[in-house]
Amino acid sequence: MDYRRGVVTGESVWRAILLYGANSATYKFAFGATLLEAAATGRNHVTLEELAPRYAELLCEALQRQPRQGTSARSKFLDTCRAFNAGELDRDMLHRRTVQLGFSNVVDAFPKLGGDQAPLSYYEDQRRNSAAPGLVLRDELLELAGSVHAQDLDAETAARWRLVETAWATGISDGVLGPSLVYDPDQQALVLQSKQRRRSVTGVVAALNGYQDGRCAYCNELMTQNVGSGPIVEHVLPWKLLTRLWRGPDVDAIWNLVLACWSCNNAKGGRAPHETWMPWLEQRNNDLIESRHPLREVLMAQTGATTAERHDTLKLAYRRATELLPTVWTPPVAGHRA
């Protein structure tokens, strides 16, 4: 991920906040999505009254989808949203209480990484400005909302949100692996699987795109999710290993999935990439784990609890894969950036 490698841009810091920030409640996902929508209008000042309807709407929808939207036992604001969903409050009262309760922590907490202020600021807090209370949207946010990747960022936020709420609801984030999140190649989605059923949680493209900064894993070229030839879910160690005498970790799992452009996917075919590329995959998996990703425990169970164990697991899997499929593919030089 660009930010973790010292690349500070509007996109990289935004992704870091949404993908690496603490997950104690899902307010930041609703707030981030609301900010992007507000900034897309081109305005540089918004009031809490203007943000409240969309912000509350997103959280009310989330509570209908999954009742647990935080780690705290109670929340006055979430209780307000629950009351609205139950028909106990009208929309006007929901919006008024959202202004009163919904922004008290998220405005200060959103632009932080690891407890420290993020290197870029997307807004100025002017809530105490009696002349023009609200938020001043900085150029960094306005440019981000107007960029070609704004839709990707919105999709990535939604995907992360669904993974977090699913992890809380099922205990996956605490190391409980049944039910588990698995890859469904037909849907190209992560699905919650139990003995009784399979339920789609989120698309793999949106879930992984932010960790690749919207770039192809192999050639490093930018991709967009709304273009027909955009990201393709790619098995690094080929899926057809499962049709051979494969003695390694399940290659049809998240540790072995990346996003590639059509050109690289087509060129690679059913081959493994050259071993000089493999540190990129190792680093990506470590990034997922270190980001408090909801699949952290699943990844660790599949590949190892420590970086050393994961390195050895990947090295052994690669050796076994290339013993069965010795012809490898060398990605473009630009892709070697682990």
From TrEMBL:
Record's keyword terms, sorted: Endonuclease, Hydrolase, Nuclease
Pfam (any one): HNH
Keyword Nuclease: yes
Domain HNH: 216-269
Gene Ontology molecular functions: endonuclease activity; nucleic acid binding; zinc ion binding
Origin superkingdom: Bacteria
InterPro entries tied to this protein: HNH, HNH_nuc
Protein name: HNH endonuclease
Organism annotation: Nonomuraea aridisoli
Lineage: Bacteria, Bacillati, Actinomycetota, Actinomycetes, Streptosporangiales
